[in-house]
Amino acid sequence: MPGFKEIRTKIKSVENTRKITKAMEMVAVSKMRKAQERMRASRPYAERVRNIAGHLAEANPDYVHPFMVRHESLRRAGLVVISTDKGLCGGMNTNVLRLVTNRMRDYARAGVAVDVVAVGGKGAGFLNRFGAHVVSQVVALGDTPHLESLIGPVKVLTDAYLADELDEIRICYTRFVNTMAQEPVEELLIPMGSETLRADRGALLLDYLCEPDAQTVIDELVANYVEALIYRAVAENMASEQSARRMAMKAATDNAGNVIGELTLLYNKSRQASITQEITEIVSGAAAV
After folding, report:
1. What is the pLDDT averaged over residues 123-138?
2. Which of 95, 133, 180, 260 could form a disulfide with 184 if both were Cys (CB 3.0 to 4.6 A apart)?
3. Residue 10, CB half-sphere, CA atoms under 13 Å: how many?
4. Are the C-beta atoms of 112 and 75 separated by less than 8 Å?
5. Distance CA 151, CA 155 (A)
6. Peptide bond before residue 153 is cis, with ω within 30 degrees of 0
7. Residue 175 β-bridge partners
């Protein structure tokens, strides 16, 4: 059984750890609210841009944007992998990176080459160790996503698709379900089919007047939709990160409290055993005299 000093030292160490995890939990709660507000604000914009682009695509069937053209064969694909810059958020990064590795193995079995864009330090580090062909990456995003820092790396893949060097582009990130649950998802970013740019069938299909022409407007709308989807995915990932970190730090704080309780009980038992032994020795000595 360890001595009093060792137990007291361990209790003090766990108490210090609990203070840190509690502080990190409170910080995550504060950031989580802002991240969720940003995430919820990004969803309606992406949905509205998609509906308008879908309406225009149906109203102008003579022009098809290159992002809407599906290639006949799948030779090379692009993956946009969104992860976090920091750890201590449970199994969030592990789950999305497992989804990515499974997709890359499926591509490898089909003989499809893969170009990867890594958003987030954890994903970039893992993909480089995994041996993936990382064509661009962006790290140190901070607590607020900035579109100008995201579009550049992703543009490497979109330009390759326009040059007929890629046949499809997928995006992998963690979708925010609620504070307790987040799920890794994979979405087809390009090519955009009718299931992606779907028009709202319940609304009236309006006759749009486009200036300077429909092609220019559709090109701009599709580009905005891709940017909105990338931004929304990063916003969803950040909201998931803060929620997952809050839950992980709460669990760590609770576990630290349980450990402190067990160590305190062990300390009291050791102290009581020592007192009992001293009393026994005193009584035995007195009886011998």
Report:
1. 87
2. 95
3. 17
4. yes
5. 6
6. no
7. 183
What tokens were used for 76? Answer: 């090379």
Q: Are residues 85 and 122 in contact, defined by beta-carbon separation less than 8 angstroms?
A: yes
CB 24 within 8 A of CB 245: yes
Question: When comparing pLDDT for 254 and 3, which is higher?
Answer: 254
Q: Please list the residues that pair with 176 across neighbouring strands.
A: 182
Structure-block tokens of residue 123 = 């994903």
Q: Report pLDDT digits (tens) over 172-188.
A: 999 888 878 888 988 88
The torsion angle over the Cα atoms of residues 101, 107, 108 and 112, rounded to 10 degrees, is -140
User: Is residue 204's pLDDT more than 50?
Assistant: no
**Angle value at C-alpha 80, between 76 and 83, nearest 5 degrees:** 145
User: What is the per-residue DSSP string for the chain?
Assistant: ---HHHHHHHHHHHHHHHHHHHHHHHHHHHHHHHHHHHHHHHHHHHHHHHHHHHHHHHH-TT---GGGPPPSS--EEEEEEE--SS--STTHHHHHHHHHHHHHHHHHHTT-EEEEEEESHHHHHHHHHHT--EEEEE----SS--HHHHHHHHHHHHHHHHTTS-SEEEEEEEEE--SS-EEEEEEEEES--TTTS---TTS-------SS-HHHHHHHHHHHHHHHHHHHHHHHHHHHHHHHHHHHHHHHHHHHHHHHHHHHHHHHHHHHHHHHHHHHHHHHHHHH-
